[in-house]
């Protein structure tokens, strides 16, 4: 007997739906496998405290914080001693004196909170890797400005180095605590950050006095003015190494504008079944019952 047009239409519709569902099932399986793989490779939040502390990302973050905080704290602790050098001490006829430079440095440090929105914006836009590299670049720039100021006795350049130091110090803390919270979550955040900060403090206690004594050298004798240049060069070398490490292990997924995180329309793809697929998940389109 001949099939009615209605039965032919229903049969063809069922065939299309079946093929569509098969394709959707295959894509769903692939998506689930990919999510399971990514979770096993990149999910740090469910790790134990020991696993989080000894993983590669945490070791690199700890290295960054310990090195940058050491040099930042060492400069602040030894800055008054370094200013005794003849190159940065103004003449009696000039209004710029050692005490004035110290006072300006204190005022600039007090205004360091103004920098916080800038580092927050950079972390949200370019990511932690490039922001960490920027932090190291600020530390290097500060040392170069200090070398110029010492060589020419240029007090305005010294003040500019204070401003750059303010940025450098204000950047390094969010560049550590922000990624730790984002990558590892808050389950062991207090323990992780506390351990790293304690190690940083211990390193400063052990190395600050020997480094300062080495830099002072024979500074107060008539024939020598200390080894501050060697100390500054050591800081530059350490920060360059950090830049290389950060660049090598950078997360390329972070290097995108902030609005890309909020815009899913450009990355949406619609398949035959009317499903919307984006990086935030899949949403099946349904008819309104109203």
Describe the 3D structure.
22% of the residues are buried. The longest helix has 38 residues, at 5-42. A three-stranded antiparallel sheet has the order 1-2-3, with no helix packed on it. Mean pLDDT is 75; it is low at 36-41, 87-95 and 255-290. Helix 3 packs antiparallel against helix 9 (228-248), helix 6 runs antiparallel to helix 7 and helix 6 (127-152) packs antiparallel against helix 9 (228-248). It has ten helices and three strands. It is mainly α and 290 residues long. 70% of the residues lie in helices and 3% in strands. The protein has helices at residues 5-42, 49-53, 56-82, 98-110, 116-125, 127-152, 155-184, 189-216, 228-248, 259-262; strands spanning 269-270, 275-278, 281-284. The two termini are 42 Å apart.
Distance between the termini: 42 Å
Structural class of the secondary elements? Answer: mainly alpha
DSSP strand tally:
3
- What does the overall shape look like? globular
Mean pLDDT, to the nearest integer, reads 75
Helix percentage: 55-70%
Number of helices: 10
Low-confidence region ranges: 36-41, 87-95, 255-290
**Beta-strand fraction estimate:** under 5%
Radius of gyration: 29 Å
Question: What is the H-and-E element order?
Answer: HHHHHHHHHHEEE
Task: Characterize the main sheet.
Answer: 3 strands, antiparallel
Strand order of the largest sheet: 1-2-3
């Amino acid at each position: 007997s001949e099939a009615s047009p209605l039965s032919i239409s229903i049969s063809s519709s069922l065939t299309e739906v079946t093929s569509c569902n098969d394709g959707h099932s295959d894509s769903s399986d692939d998506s689930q496998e990919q999510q399971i793989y990514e979770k096993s490779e990149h999910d740090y939040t469910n790790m134990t405290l020991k696993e989080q502390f000894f993983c590669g990302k945490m070791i690199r973050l700890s290295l960054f914080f310990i090195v940058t905080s050491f040099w930042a704290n060492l400069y602040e602790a030894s800055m008054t001693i370094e200013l005794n050098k003849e190159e940065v001490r103004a003449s009696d006829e000039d209004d710029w004196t050692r005490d004035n430079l110290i006072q300006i440095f204190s005022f600039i440090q007090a205004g360091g909170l103004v920098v916080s929105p800038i580092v927050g914006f950079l972390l949200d836009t370019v990511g932690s890797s490039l922001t960490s590299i920027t932090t190291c670049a600020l530390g290097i720039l500060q040392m170069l400005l200090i070398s110029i100021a010492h060589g020419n006795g240029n007090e305005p350049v010294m003040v500019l180095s204070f401003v750059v130091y303010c940025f450098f110090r204000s950047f390094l803390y969010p560049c550590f605590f922000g990624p730790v919270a984002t990558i590892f979550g808050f389950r062991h955040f207090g323990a992780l950050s506390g351990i790293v900060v304690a190690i940083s403090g211990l390193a400063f206690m052990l190395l600050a006095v020997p480094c300062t004594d080495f830099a002072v050298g024979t500074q107060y004798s008539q024939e020598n003015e200390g080894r501050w240049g060697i100390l500054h060069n050591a800081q530059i070398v350490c920060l360059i190494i950090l830049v290389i490490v950060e660049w090598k292990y950078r997360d390329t997924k972070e290097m995108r504008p902030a609005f890309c995180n909020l815009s899913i329309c450009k990355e949406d793809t619609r398949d035959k079944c009317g499903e919307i697929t984006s990086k935030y998940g899949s949403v099946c389109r349904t008819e309104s019952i109203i």
